[in-house]
């Protein structure tokens, strides 16, 4: 029979064959393992190279890019950001949103307006969940904008999106809204506005008469928009709401800017939103006529007496505290990012500033274990210079 061994010699031969087979199997496994490691190394290298060269901002979402990273779900997901702008009325949000609409085809992302029924800023719990689930899983990269208060994704077990926001000086915002309701703006000049009939009353006169459209409590809008969907966010004068709004600015929002410095804000967004969604945004904003288009058609300057009266109200003081907090945070971040540009208003923004002028990182990686292989070491040495 085939398996029967009669001679001692044959046993030796079989043993030898077995040992050789064993060695081959072990070698094969080692080669496969090595290949796997190299693949992982490669993926890490790709990620590090992208970070180091800073060009992750410029990745397009075309099919070649997604094929390139098809083994790396994490990188792919982060290149497809979900950006949410819960815009506060009359803060210059239309100019900002127009930049997104103008850039969407160059930078390959979708822009969607969220129209909340009845102009309400609040959603039911189940609608919040539906909105979160829908935006998380639907087409990306995407930029959603709408007039709703902050919705907390993490609360329902989802990853938080890139929240962006612009705030404006609270009294300026209210005055702008007041005249907007009466005269409209140059964006849709022929639309008849709600308070069209009442257009002869100036804001000052309204304050003097104690009218309902110019009450200090109407200033309470930027705090609740940043605070969120809770009942207490919407109680004018709530200290808790102000604290919560500040906490959200730092913990939940990617970056909050101020209307008065929109050009600078766009410059920063170019850097912090991945996937190149805002590539060339500040440059575009400077040259676009549309971005400056929407101005309330008619506006009377507000008297010192009116300003004084508002400054005495608790609601103005709190809204202003949030505005000042955001303005300070933004100026601080901007100065750190662009130390050689004086932080003035958009008009003084230096013309020569380009994204290519960004300095190399002020940090680097070292003491890396396990040690990089020879090939990688060579690369690193040339890269560091
Ligand atoms: C939101 O939808 C309503 C109803 O369809 C519509 O009348 C309204 O104009 C929309 N709002 C905006 C800002 O487009
Ligand atoms: C999100 O909502 C839209 C409109 O209601 C719908 O067409 C789409 O299928 C939804 N997507 C997901 C992933 O739920
Ligand atoms: C950036 O925007 C400006 C103004 O719209 C335009 O002239 C320029 O060609 C754009 N640059 C790039 C690289 O898209
Ligand atoms: C910024 O200014 C400092 C000091 O004036 C100078 O040394 C540095 O080279 C400048 N950096 C850039 C990028 O212009």
How would you sum up this structure, described in words?
The protein is α/β, with parallel strands linked by helices. The protein is 48% helix and 6% strand. The protein contains 14 helices and five strands. It has a five-stranded parallel β-sheet with strand order 2-3-1-4-5. Strand 2, helix 5 (125-137) and strand 3 (142-145) form a beta-alpha-beta unit. Helix 9 (239-251) runs parallel beside helix 13 and helix 10 (262-272) runs antiparallel to helix 11 (281-287). The radius of gyration is 29 Å and the shape is elongated. Residues 52-73 and 343-352 have low confidence and may be disordered. Bound molecules: 2-acetamido-2-deoxy-beta-D-glucopyranose (4 copies). Residues 280, 283-284, 287 line the site of one 2-acetamido-2-deoxy-beta-D-glucopyranose. The chain crosses the membrane at residues 12-36.
Annotation keywords:
385 residues, alpha/beta, 5-stranded parallel β-sheet, binds 2-acetamido-2-deoxy-beta-D-glucopyranose, Heparin sulfate O-sulfotransferase, Sulfotransferase
Oligomer: single chain
The average pLDDT score comes to 82
Please report the distance between the alpha carbons of the first and last residues. 71 Å
Task: Give me the count of strands.
Answer: 5
The helix-and-strand class reads alpha/beta
Can you list the strand order of the major beta sheet? 2-3-1-4-5
Transmembrane segments: 12-36
Pfam family, one: Sulfotransfer_2
Keywords: Disulfide bond, Glycoprotein, Golgi apparatus, Membrane, Signal-anchor, Transferase, Transmembrane, Transmembrane helix
Subunit structure: Homotrimer.
């Amino acid at each position: 029979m085939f398996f029967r061994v009669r001679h001692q010699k044959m046993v030796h031969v079989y043993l030898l064959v077995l040992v050789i087979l064993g060695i081959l199997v072990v070698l094969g496994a080692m080669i496969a393992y090595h290949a796997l490691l190299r693949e992982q190394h490669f993926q890490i290298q790709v990620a590090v190279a992208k970070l180091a060269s800073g060009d992750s901002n410029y990745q397009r979402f075309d099919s070649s890019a997604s094929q390139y990273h098809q083994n790396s779900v994490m990188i792919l997901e982060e290149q497809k950001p979900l950006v949410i702008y819960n815009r506060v009325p009359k803060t210059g949000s239309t100019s900002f949103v127009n930049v997104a609409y103008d850039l969407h085809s160059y930078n390959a992302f979708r822009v969607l307006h969220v129209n909340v029924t009845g102009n309400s800023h609040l959603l039911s719990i189940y609608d919040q969940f539906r909105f979160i689930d829908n935006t998380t899983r639907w087409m990306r990269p995407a930029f959603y904008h709408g007039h709703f208060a902050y919705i907390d994704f993490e609360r329902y077990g989802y990853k938080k999106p890139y929240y962006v926001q612009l705030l404006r000086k609270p009294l300026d915002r209210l005055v702008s809204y007041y005249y907007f309701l009466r005269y409209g703006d140059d964006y849709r000049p022929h639309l008849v506005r709600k308070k069209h009939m009442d257009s002869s009353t100036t804001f000052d006169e309204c304050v003097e008469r104690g009218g309902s459209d110019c009450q200090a409590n109407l200033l309470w809008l930027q705090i609740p928009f940043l605070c969120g969907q809770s009942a207490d966010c919407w109680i004018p004068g709530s200290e808790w709401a102000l604290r919560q709004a500040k906490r959200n600015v730092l913990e939940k929002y990617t970056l909050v800017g101020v209307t008065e410095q929109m050009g600078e804000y766009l410059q920063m967004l170019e850097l912090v939103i991945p996937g190149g969604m805002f590539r060339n945004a500040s440059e575009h904003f400077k040259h676009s006529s549309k971005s400056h288009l929407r101005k309330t058609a008619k506006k009377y300057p507000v008297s010192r007496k009116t300003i004084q009266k508002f400054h005495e109200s608790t609601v103005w003081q709190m809204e202003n505290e949030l505005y000042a907090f955001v303005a300070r945070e933004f100026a601080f971040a901007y100065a750190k990012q662009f130390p050689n540009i004086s932080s003035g208003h958009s008009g003084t923004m230096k013309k020569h500033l380009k994204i290519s002028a960004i300095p190399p990182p002020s940090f680097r990686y070292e003491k890396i274990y396990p040690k990089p292989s020879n090939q990688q070491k060579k690369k690193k040495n040339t890269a560091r210079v």
